[in-house]
Amino acid sequence: MTPAMTDHADELVARAREETGLDDLGEDTWSEGLHELVRSADTDGRYTDMGRMSFETEIVRNLCNRLLIEQLYAHHPEIDDQDCEVELLGVGFPRTGSTALAALLGEDHRVRHLRMWEAGDPMPPPGLSPADDEQRIAAGRARIEMQDMMEPRFKSMLPQSATGPLEDHDLLGISFQSQHFIAMSWVPTYADWFLHCDMVPAYRYERRVLKVLQWKQGPTRWWLKSPTHSLFLAAREQVFPETRYVMTHRDVSKVLPSVADLYTVMLSFMNEGIDPVAVGALNMDQWGTALDRMLAFRDTHDEQFFDMGFTAFQADPMGQIRGLYQWLGRELTPEVEARMEAWREDNPRDGARHDYRAEEFGLDDASLEARFGAYRARFGPLL
Asked: Going by DSSP bridges, is the β-strand pair 221-225/85-92 parallel, antiparallel, or unpaired?
């Protein structure tokens, strides 16, 4: 790493400390990821001028969140004494119906879900100031409106609500070990580092953040989801051994081109000259590695998984959810089921056409079969 690259990362740390007036970033489980990310951004990045500013703002935001979290723990060490259990984690490939599933499960308020408005702005702790919470909810709605205005297709590709569940990328981003950065910036060197990094410290810090989020606004039993965790289940189990998994499935011939298209759209917000074929290769590497690790993990933990196929979920989502609740040993009450049905009425299935071909991303049936044939062989009936 050159001194200039080190200086850039350190400059961003100094900005966060100046903005907050704080110094303590806690245990040093964040600096390696930060320096790898900034180095890759400086070397590989294809930012627009606005994209470069947005990237640096994102880095400083995560550093500020960490500084504020550590200050809170210094004043209230009792936060760490709470129980904090991640009972259910949604995993599997992206574009498999997991977003709709998470939104439906989010209507069960007897468990804690990570809401969009708090994920990127966890401080102050939700419930401490209702007025501050309302401001963050309004800001979340404004971000979604701006995003949909910049890229109208995005709304149909990845529907979001400020008060609905969100993947926990932001919580891992506080340790600078998150796939979120790979989807917003062209950082292939960081992406390769990310595949092989030690995620245990990042997951330990995620539990630390979850305790902050539940401190004033429980419950203390969480249901989370993110396809990223498929890469790191062995590491995650060391921190969250209590977790059971719901894994969503869809044939990779539909998944990988759709993921590559989504990444291309997301990268276009802040970058220029993005090559769709390179995006396809990046996703083949990321999700092929995820497949290998997932299959190995399931060889010894298969009883901890509930499998849900995309076609079956689209045809009868409530039937699939009833099966999940029965497997968990949880009651699906009439009140919760009614809220889920209301969400379905308010959010009809996406009827938009997505005009892309696998070949645009350098993907074809032969390459997909060669890399993901083991997945098709093992889970064929669900696809």
From this structure: parallel
Question: Using CA atoms, how far apart are residues 294 and 286, in angstroms rounded to an integer?
Answer: 12
Cβ atoms 362, 281 nearer than 8 A: yes
Strand order in the sheet with 305-309: 221-225, 85-92, 244-249, 305-309
DSSP 44-79: H--B-HHHHHHHHHHHHHHHHHHHHHHHHHHH-GGG
- Burial-class residue 74 by CB neighbours within 10 Å (0-12, 13-18, 19+): exposed
Going residue by residue through the chain, which has 383 residues, state the pLDDT in tens, using 9 for 90 and above. Answer: 444 456 899 999 999 999 999 999 999 999 999 999 999 999 999 999 999 999 999 999 999 999 999 999 999 999 999 999 999 999 999 999 999 999 999 999 999 999 999 999 999 999 999 999 999 999 999 999 988 887 777 676 677 899 999 999 999 999 999 999 999 999 999 999 999 999 999 999 999 999 999 999 999 999 999 999 999 999 999 999 999 999 999 999 999 999 999 999 999 999 999 999 999 999 999 999 999 999 999 999 999 999 999 999 999 999 999 999 999 999 999 999 999 999 999 888 755 566 789 999 999 999 999 999 999 999 999 99
Cβ–Cβ under 8 Å, residues 268 and 160: no
Residue 266 lies in a domain: yes
Residue 7 lies in a domain: no
Which helix (H) or strand (E) is 309 found in, with range? strand 305-309
Within 76-97, where are the H helices? Answer: none
Return the amino acid letter for 35.
H
**Number of domains observed in the structure of the chain:** 1
Residue 50 to residue 58: CA distance in whole angstroms? 12
Domain region containing 216: 82-382
* CA nearest neighbour of 120 among 166, 185, 53: 166
What CATH number does residue 106 fall under?
Answer: 3.40.50.300
What DSSP element (H or E) covers 308?
A: strand 305-309
Residue 57 in domain: no
Alpha-carbon distance of 275 to 263, in angstroms, equals 11
What's the rounded Cα separation, in Å, for the pair 122 and 162?
14
